[in-house]
Design goal:
Belongs to the cytochrome P450 family. The protein contains 17 helices and twelve strands. The protein is α+β, with helices and mostly antiparallel strands. The strands form four sheets. The protein has a five-stranded mixed beta sheet with strand order 1-2-8-5-3. The protein has a three-stranded antiparallel beta sheet with strand order 4-12-9. A two-stranded antiparallel sheet has the order 6-7.
Length: 533
């Protein structure tokens, strides 16, 4: 009897002991997390927002999900511009900041900086190899030295020319654009395809066209379709185990096929471009970014150690494609959505287009600096929906940051940052910080009209400092030209549901969603052809 009683009790004792040990371990980890952030105030959720399972659970009253910085953009930094998120159940602590001074400290590439971009924060950018966006320290400097010359005025002129050509190709090919009005139920279907074509032509010298079929006559996937598929499946390809990608399901098979085909194609293209560079004179060099990247690499002094290998060249080509496509496509859609709703802002942009370009000629790249109101609308949409919504850095050694005191208190305070702790610069938080942007929730393009050389330090949606986006002028040249062409010819209006008001349309549409990047919701628009004045 005693033995039976003991056997019944012992499992409960064991279970209680296991639970007790687990609870104690959670308490110890939580206390260590608080110590790691020096008890910096902030949310104390059960899970870390960017890891499983927290990232899969929507942001709510008890969980900080992967979109917490968007969902709580008006409240997360109410008391402090720099906070900590310390999970009590699962995940590591993290510092979040919406302050420019802190951004400068962690984004610096100077000799005194010990912050790097951790590999886990760049996994989606490493699909084809190390590249400028993911590299650190001397490797980053080597990539930057080779990449820099590829982005020059010749490339920006090409972007402008091909944007006009692609816009006309769209009008002739896309159904409905030859009439007096056309409905675009999801304008992103236009902007994503447009951005892909311009990038394919100007970034890589590919002969892309709007009406090209997704497959060749032999049933093979075209390069244009392979690129689109890889971009759409980027998260799957980056994070899924190899065995998952080998499953015989449609999406898996198609994604794997596109990735393998694009890899082979890029490898062949690197060899071809190298041969062209070695056999051509400078006057014969192609103007696309891929060709100029290979040219710059082949011209690099210092031997093999200063050059990029084939995998690095392909890695940089991919990151140009991914980053450029996402930012341009999302922001063009948001810009058109805002201008459709804010008719006075659209009228002001249209008037400048008339004053600078008029009806009787195409805009020229020389008009770029005079179309500051067009650029201002694009910048303001990008401020409200920054595609690159977080920037993550981690120190290689224990260090000290200077962070601002709580709101209402002047001065700075010292914040210890132990080696390996993630510091997340919240780009949404910066763009919505009233210290930098009064009435940050409002669409006010005039914020940017007087910006000298389009280079305000407050504008961080393209990042900041030496690690700022190298393709910024590529994106803005494309945006200004496209918006000038389409808004000169068409007036954008909200496409309303039956019985829907403009205000209801705004609430439904002009909100954000985060997948890999931050973008506006699907934007339904109606374009009405303008009458020549």
């Amino acid at each position: 009897m005693a033995t039976d009683a003991l056997s019944n009790i012992e499992p409960w004792k064991a279970f209680t002991a296991v639970v007790g040990i687990f609870v104690i371990s959670r308490i110890v980890n939580y206390v260590r997390g608080l110590q790691a952030v020096n008890n910096l105030p902030g949310p104390r959720p059960p899970f870390q927002p960017f890891n499983l399972p927290g990232a899969l659970i929507p942001t709510n009253s008890w969980n900080t999900g992967a979109d917490v910085h968007w969902a709580r953009r008006f409240s997360l930094y109410k008391d402090n511009e720099t906070i900590s998120i310390v999970p009590w159940f699962s995940g590591k602590p993290q510092i979040f900041t919406s302050n420019l001074d802190v951004l400068r400290q962690v984004a610096s590439t100077g000799p005194k900086s010990c912050f790097i971009k951790p590999e886990t924060a760049s996994k989606t950018l490493l699909l084809f190899g190390i590249n400028l966006a993911a590299a650190n320290e001397d490797v980053w400097r080597r990539h930057r030295r080779v990449m820099g010359p590829a982005f020059n005025s010749k490339l920006y002129h090409l972007v402008w020319e091909q944007t006009i050509k692609t816009y006309r190709d769209m009008l002739q090919t896309e159904p409905g654009w030859t009439g007096k009005s056309v409905d675009a139920p999801v304008i992103q279907e236009i902007t994503f395809k447009f951005a892909l074509l311009v990038l394919g032509i100007c970034g890589f010298g590919f002969d892309f066209s709007w009406g090209a079929p997704p497959e060749t006559e032999q049933g093979e996937m075209t390069v244009q379709e392979a690129i689109r598929t890889v971009l759409d499946a980027n998260m799957l390809l980056a994070f899924a185990p190899e065995w998952v990608l080998r499953l015989p399901f449609g999406e898996m098979k198609r994604s794997r096929k596109a990735y393998n085909q694009l890899t082979r194609f890029m490898q062949d293209q690197v060899k071809l471009r190298k041969e062209e560079v070695r056999s051509q004179t400078k006057e014969e060099y192609k103007r696309d970014a891929f060709s100029m990247l290979v040219q710059a690499n082949e011209s690099e002094d210092g031997g093999v150690k200063n050059k990029l290998n084939d995998e690095e060249l392909i890695g940089n080509v991919f990151v140009m494609l991914f980053a450029g496509h996402e930012t341009s496509a999302h922001t063009l859609a948001a810009t058109l959505g805002f201008l459709a709703y804010y008719t006075e802002a659209q009228d002001e942009v249209f008037q400048q287009i008339m004053d600078v370009v008029g009806w009787d000629r195409d805009p020229a790249f020389d008009d770029y600096n005079n179309l500051n109101k067009v650029l201002g609308a694009f910048y303001e949409a990008l401020r409200l929906f920054p595609a690159g919504h977080v920037l993550i850095r981690s120190p290689l050694e224990d260090t000290i940051m200077e962070i601002p005191n709580p709101r209402g208190q002047e001065g700075m305070q010292r914040q210890p940052v132990p080696k390996g702790l993630y510091v997340t610069v919240d780009m949404v938080g910066i763009q919505y910080n009233p210290r930098y942007f009064p009435e940050p929730e409002k669409f006010i393009p005039s914020r940017w009209h007087q910006m000298q050389n389009n280079d305000s330090e407050q504008f961080t949606a393209f990042s900041l400092g030496p690690r700022g986006c190298i393709g910024r002028k590529f994106a803005t040249a494309e945006a200004v030209c496209f918006l000038t062409m389409i808004l000169r010819e068409w007036k954008a209006e909200p496409l309303l549901k039956a019985g829907e008001t403009r205000e209801q349309w705004k609430e439904r549409v002009l909100d954000g969603k985060i997948v890999l990047t931050l973008g506006v919701n699907d934007v339904p628009l109606r374009f009405v052809r303008r009458e020549r004045m």
